[in-house]
Amino acid sequence: MDNYKISIFGGTVFGILPNLPIEDIMVTVCMAIIGTISSYVVTVLLKWISKRLDKR
Length: 56
Known about the structure:
This protein is mostly helical. It is built from two helices and no strands.
């Protein structure tokens, strides 16, 4: 049963992949990178603010 799931997933992915323009893939990758970096920066900033407020 697991082989069927893998086959269906693989067929779906490799059926969709050639139809996606490279520009869309690059935009998605860039947006993911920007989202990751901004999430990290906000987390570090909030931790720093939290530590500053706890010292008071």
